[in-house]
Structures are given as structure tokens and as C-alpha cells.
Specification:
By secondary structure, the protein is mainly alpha-helical. It is built from eight helices and no strands. The chain has a domain of 194 residues. It is rod-shaped and about 170 Å long. The two termini are 43 Å apart.
Length: 329
């Protein structure tokens, strides 16, 4: 039993490019387990190239373990050829019992070898599909990270623009307050015809020395003037309040449009992210389903060692499915 440091060094050497043939046969299982650990680390880091290389190494080492446990070659052509020669010799000598025994032995050997071949094919197909499955899972994690980052940047940009908009609105209100005139505008300083007439009467009475009557008119005119100035001032203030309310309403409308535009942008990003994530998720589900179906399929072999074509999964169908998956990636 080799120690863990030796296995780890051997695994790192394999990943670095050492030939698989240099791996001792008594540590194949330990090296495969170590490679599985390295594969999990690479999946977590999102290193697709490393995951693909490790899976290739695992397939090659697994094939060596299988050949070692079987103790014989997958291809039985040489052995069957020898048995056929022997059968022909005994048949020519009319030794039909022996010929029949050889025929049965050949049939059993065909069945055994065909099952081995089919098992190897299924293992190879599953290995390829599992490799694609791992790539899809890494791709799915990368897609989620990409969309989360986009959404985060979108929210940050929205907050920045909202802050700039609020500062602009505040400045607009300050500028509006600073634009107030020190005195009433000319249009609000015009007196009524009644007051002008009273001032004219007051002036004429003073000219003809009717001072008592002029004093009375002067007092009355002052009251009217004060009342008119108060009214004009209130009218001007009402106008300012109206303009301020209109400015606030325009700012509220602008803020509402700002929020609607950003909500639409964020909704669009979320919709696109859901579509892309769902597409990749469905791809993963389909690959997992195909792997399960491939593992659960059974091979039907008759007494002559022939495979039933209705049970086997055609290799062309698998190749089509593989290219179909790769096109999604």
C-alpha cells in the first residue's frame, strides 16, 4: 500500500503531462480517487480545461483497471478463429458431438465478448456525456455569476444617477428661491383708477387751499393704497407658489419616468438572465436523463452471439445528441 504523498505526487505528475503507462498497476484505484478530488477542486475554480484533462486521465486509467480485472482481451477474433479451425477438423472427422460442444463454446464466448464490448461502449459514451455535463454545470455557474454581476452594476448605476437627479432638483429649487425679486414687479405695482382719481382730487383740493377736504381725501387714499399693495403682494406670492408647485410637479414626473425607465431595464436583464439560465438548466436535465437511460439500458444477445438492433442505442444517435448539446454551449 503506497502512502498518500506518493499518490499525490503521482497524480500531480500525471496532470503535468506524465505518461499514463508509467503508473503502477497496484495503485490505479488510488490514483483515480486522487484525480476525482482534483476534479472537484477544478470544478469549484471553474477551470474547464483542467476538468476535461482530468476526466480524460480517469477514463484511460479506468480502462486499464477493467482490462486488468477481466484478464483477457475485448476482441476475441484470434480465439474464435482457432476454435473454428478445430471445429472444422472435428466435423471433417464426423466428430459431431465435439463440433457441437465447440459451437456452444463459441456462442458463449461471443455472448461474453459482445457484452464486454457493449459495456465498454456504454462506459465510453457515459464518460463523454459526463464530461459535457460537467462543462454545462460550470457554464451554468458562470452564467449566474455573469448576470448577478450585471444586475449589481445596474443597481449601482441607478443609485448614482438617482443621486445626481436629486441634487439637480435641489439646485433647481434653490435657484428658484434666489430668483425672487427684492421689490414687486412692475405689473404688480400699478394702482387702480379709483386710487389715481383720489390722488388727483387730493392734489386739486390742495391747490385751491381746501386743506381740510384734501386731508380727508389723503387719508382715504392712503387706506386704499395700502389695501391695493397688500392685495398685489398676495397675488404675487400666489403666483410664486404656483410656479413652485409646477416645478415640484415637473420634478416628480421626471423622477417617476426615471424610476419607470430603470425598472424596465432591470426587468429586461432579469428576463434575459432567466431565459439563458433556464436554457442551460434544461440542457443539464436532458444530459442527465440520457446518462440515466444509457445506464439502465440492457443488451439482448441471442444464442448465436447476435445483438438485437431494437435494444441497442445507435452510435449515430449518440453522436447527433452530443453535437446537439455542444451547439447549445
Amino acid at each position: 500500500m503506497k502512502n498518500s504523498t506518493y499518490i499525490e505526487n503521482l497524480t500531480e505528475a500525471l496532470i503535468s503531462g506524465m505518461s499514463v503507462s508509467r503508473v503502477p498497476s497496484d495503485v490505479l484505484g488510488d490514483v483515480i480517487n486522487s484525480l476525482e478530488n482534483y476534479k472537484e477542486i477544478s470544478i469549484g475554480e471553474g477551470d474547464t480545461e483542467m476538468v476535461r484533462e482530468i476526466q480524460r486521465l480517469i477514463r484511460v486509467l479506468s480502462a486499464k483497471v477493467e482490462v486488468k480485472s477481466d484478464g483477457e482481451s475485448i476482441l476475441p477474433n484470434n480465439t474464435i478463429r482457432e476454435l473454428r479451425k478445430s471445429q472444422k477438423k472435428y466435423s471433417s472427422a464426423c466428430e459431431y458431438k465435439i463440433s457441437q460442444a465447440i459451437e456452444e463454446k463459441i456462442a458463449k464466448k461471443k455472448i461474453r465478448e459482445v457484452k464486454k464490448l457493449q459495456k465498454w461502449k456504454k462506459t465510453e459514451e457515459n464518460s463523454k456525456m459526463e464530461e459535457i455535463l460537467e462543462e454545462c454545470r460550470i457554464k451554468l455557474r458562470n452564467i449566474k455569476s455573469k448576470w448577478n454581476e450585471k444586475l449589481m452594476k445596474m443597481h449601482e448605476e441607478k443609485e448614482k444617477q438617482l443621486e445626481r437627479l436629486m441634487l439637480l432638483h435641489e439646485k433647481q429649487l434653490i435657484d428658484f428661491r434666489e430668483s425672487f425679486p427684492d421689490a414687486l414687479p412692475l405689473r404688480f405695482r400699478k394702482f387702480s383708477m379709483k386710487l389715481l382719481s383720489m390722488r388727483e382730487t387730493e392734489k386739486r383740493l390742495a391747490q385751491i387751499r381746501q386743506f381740510r377736504e384734501a386731508e380727508q381725501i389723503h387719508k382715504e387714499a392712503n387706506l386704499v393704497e395700502k389695501s391695493e399693495i397688500t392685495g398685489k403682494t398676495e397675488e404675487f406670492i400666489d403666483l410664486l407658489l404656483l410656479q413652485k408647485n409646477r416645478l415640484i410637479q415637473a420634478q416628480s414626473k421626471e423622477l417617476e419616468c426615471f424610476q419607470m425607465n430603470w425598472d424596465r431595464k432591470i426587468c429586461c436583464i432579469k428576463r434575459n438572465s432567466v431565459n439563458e439560465i433556464d436554457a442551460m438548466h434544461n440542457t443539464i436535465i436532458n444530459i442527465e436523463k440520457k446518462i440515466r437511460e444509457n445506464r439502465q439500458s440492457r443488451v439482448c444477445v441471442n444464442c448465436h452471439g447476435e445483438i438485437s438492433s431494437s435494444i441497442l442505442i445507435p452510435s449515430s444517435k449518440f453522436i447527433y445528441s452530443q453535437y446537439e448539446v455542444m451547439s447549445v454551449l
